Amino acid sequence: MSEWETVIGLEVHCELATKTKLFCCCPNDFGAEPNTYVCPVCLGLPGSLPVLNERAVEFALRVGEALHCVIPEESIFHRKNYFYPDMPKNFQISQYDEPVCGNGWLAITNPDGTARRVGVERAHLEEDTGKTSHVGGGGGRIHGADHSLVDYNRAGVPLLEIVSKPDLRSPEEARAYVAELRGVLEAIGVSDVKMEEGSLRIDANISLRPAGSEKLGTRAEVKNMNSLRSLVRALEYEAGRQAEVLETGEAVVQETRHWDEEAGRTYSLRSKEEAYDYRYFPEPDLVPLLPSAEWRDKVRAAMPELPAARKARLVEAWGLSEVDAGVLVGTPGLADYAEGAAAAGAPGRDVTNWVTGDLLAHLKESGSSPGDLALAPAGLAELVKLVADGTLSRPLAKEVLGAALAGAGGGSPAAIVAERGLAQVSDEDSLVAAVAAVLDAHPGEVERYRSGEDKDRKKLRGFFMGKVMAEMKGRGNPQVLNRLLDEALGAS
Ligand SMILES: [Zn+2]
């Protein structure tokens, strides 16, 4: 693979979180009964006319600001003509050569810590299609299915297609770009960025060229990657496949390929369409889009903090490592959660240790998002305080966290500690008694400890500590116990 350079460009389709669809008043919502959010406009009935959703344009302008795009004074909509059962009009209203956002860039941090800018070619508004399901055999594919069902609830949902330049050089870099972009889209509030619900869909153009060459190779477009992990896997597979093709002296075919997650491979779907196949022409039912300077100024003035700035702030204010701050900011909802806990009075650094450790592990395992946790940010702050004031040792705190995440104690760690009698015992009288009881019960070991070699003493010291902890049912304050044990063993 060393003699080939991988060249990747990504098309990210982002469903905009508007209340209604792009050209009608139907709700824009996921998971409703099929074909309940439809009307003459999004069903493409003759005589119906589209009306552009102002909020969707505002969201596009926000994205343009965040990605440092050129916002042209005028952009227009085109009809992209093709027949497909989930497109009742037989054309899609999209943007072609005059999109709402032009030329911009996004700064990413590579896995090796180096930063670079990835060019953004354009971002354009378009309507989503409906959704077809193939039923009765064929494993969800059209081949082998008995019949197909179409749900038009998604038809007409606003999409912003963000097209990168072919600036990405590895699957890992592609992942870093999508993760950064996802964070930006989340931060500016234009999308719920849920890849698993299709709110963020990625198509990748990938080609190889001899290292050092300037000329781009023939590309394949890969579709159907539903997570960052499958994006990396699909691109790694496809780079390997193309290298094999090129090394046998064959040519890569320009085509669209489908990523099969289970089989771990891509397969040919159809030859890649060219723009002229779509017979684009200006949409006659819509006037040109002319966002006023005032509107654009207003959007710019209202821009929230972007992930890169937030990361820098957390590194500075909480004393975090770049890696930890990157995990907080790069995981949807996690930085909000951590900042919520800090606002409830816990030190940011302690909060981050829990959030990037046990809490993140729980999120990955349960597939839930931070906003759905049974333990609210204020509850985590409570847990951090219980550790700080010595009520809980770290192992006990882990136990309490697990219980709280499982829904115990109504989300209050303090309530769980009270219910289960988990509070750490720091009271010296009980600890002194426990130490004395253990030493009394093992006079031989005590004798050996006092006269023994270094190696032996370490082992025995661990043995005593274990016994004392067992005596305290795991709840003794380890720092106090260590001190008391040293005092008792030092005494002759
Ligand atoms: Zn509608």
Summarize the structure.
This protein has 492 residues and is an alpha+beta fold. The chain has helices spanning 54-66, 171-187, 228-247, 293-301, 307-318, 322-330, 334-343, 348-366, 377-388, 394-405, 413-420, 428-441, 443-451, 454-471, 478-490, and strands at 4-15, 78-81, 91-94, 101-109, 115-127, 131-135, 147-151, 158-164, 200-210, 220-225, 255-260, 265-271, 281-282. The protein contains 15 helices and 13 strands.
Average pLDDT works out at 92
Strand content: 15-25%
Give the distance, in angstroms, between the N- and C-terminal Cα atoms.
70 Å
Residues in helix, %: 25-40%
Radius of gyration: 30 Å
Subunit organisation of the chains: single chain
Tell me the number of strands.
13
Return the string of H and E elements: EHEEEEEEEHEEHEEEHHHHHHHHHHHH
Rough shape?
elongated
What is the number of independent domains? Answer: 3
Task: Sketch the major β-sheet.
Answer: 8 strands, mixed
Instruction: List low-confidence stretches.
Output: none
By secondary-structure content and strand pairing, the structural class works out as: alpha+beta
Number of helices: 15
In the sheet with the most strands, the strands line up as 4-5-8-1-9-10-11-12
Bound ligands, each once: zinc ion
Q: What does this 3D model show about the protein?
A:
With 492 residues, this protein is α+β, with helices and mostly antiparallel strands. It has 3 domains: 4-298, no CATH class; 305-392, no CATH class; 428-490, Arc Repressor Mutant, subunit A (Orthogonal Bundle), CATH 1.10.10. It is 40% helix and 18% strand. It is built from 15 helices and 13 strands. The protein has helices spanning 54-66, 171-187, 228-247, 293-301, 307-318, 322-330, 334-343, 348-366, 377-388, 394-405, 413-420, 428-441, 443-451, 454-471, 478-490, and strands at 4-15, 78-81, 91-94, 101-109, 115-127, 131-135, 147-151, 158-164, 200-210, 220-225, 255-260, 265-271, 281-282. The strands form 3 sheets. The protein has an 8-stranded mixed beta sheet. A hairpin with a 5-residue loop joins strand 4 and strand 5. Helix 9 (377-388) packs antiparallel against helix 10 (394-405). The longest helix is centred in the middle third of the chain and has 20 residues, at 228-247. The termini are far apart. The model has no long low-confidence stretch (mean pLDDT 92). The structure holds zinc ion. Zinc ion binds next to loops.
